[in-house]
Amino acid sequence: MGRKWNNIKEKKASKDANTSRVYSKFALEIYVAAKQGEPDPESNQALKFVLERAKTYNVPRVIIDRAIDKAKGGAEENYDELRYEGFGPSGSMIIVDALTNNVNRTASTVRAAFGKNGGNMGVSGSVAYMFDNTAVFGIEGKTSDEVLELLMEADLDVRDIIEEEDTVIVYAEPDQFHAVQVAFKDAGITEFTVAELTMLAQNDISLDPEAQAQFEKLIDALEDLEDVQRVYHNVDLGE
């Protein structure tokens, strides 16, 4: 695959370092998913997916329940899902996904974050074609051969299975997310280091130290924005 897993782990670790920000973003995503369908994950696949992701980030149950109760209570906050594409230093490519109740505010703050940190916004489609929507699972305590065998038994042909240190990483088509998850759970695997849909770059690039420092500053600025849920990029951050 294009992106080495250590880059994804580094991003996750960075977000975990600021748990209040992570929790508030998940609370909004859970609320929106619950509002768009039934506030029951068994009948609302979008909500079920968000809750599975929240579990890998150790989001407390009280925050999850509060967001679902808010949706059940008939709150009338409406949010739009937006995607922005842009460029960072040295031709790096960035995708920004946001949830917002004020489109003009979000567009303005995202554009400002790019502009103040060595980047610039692109038009829709200028970057996304270089990324693949991908289901990713991280599993500990299994070998890649064991994971391959259990997926074959479930008649699932995924994109790739690799081992990195003590973690087996499975890359699958986005529409396979639920089937792969069920196969794992049927095999007794219920804990994942990650279980989510992400945008993986088809090819990573490396930056010189100065450009990488500027790039990381840009990513931090984007991820700090209240309306931004996730940020994807094509930079190999190294070890």
From TrEMBL:
Cellular compartment(s): Cytoplasm
Chief place where the protein resides: cytoplasm
Coiled-coil boundaries: none
Keyword set includes S-adenosyl-L-methionine: no
NCBIfam families attached to this UniProt entry: PRK00110.1, PRK12378.1, YebC/PmpR family DNA-binding transcriptional regulator
Protein species of origin: Robertmurraya beringensis
Positions of the TACO1/YebC-like second and third domain: 79-235
Protein name: Probable transcriptional regulatory protein ACFFHF_16775
Pfam families the UniProt entry points to: TACO1_YebC_N (PF20772), Transcrip_reg (PF01709)
Origin: domain of life: Bacteria
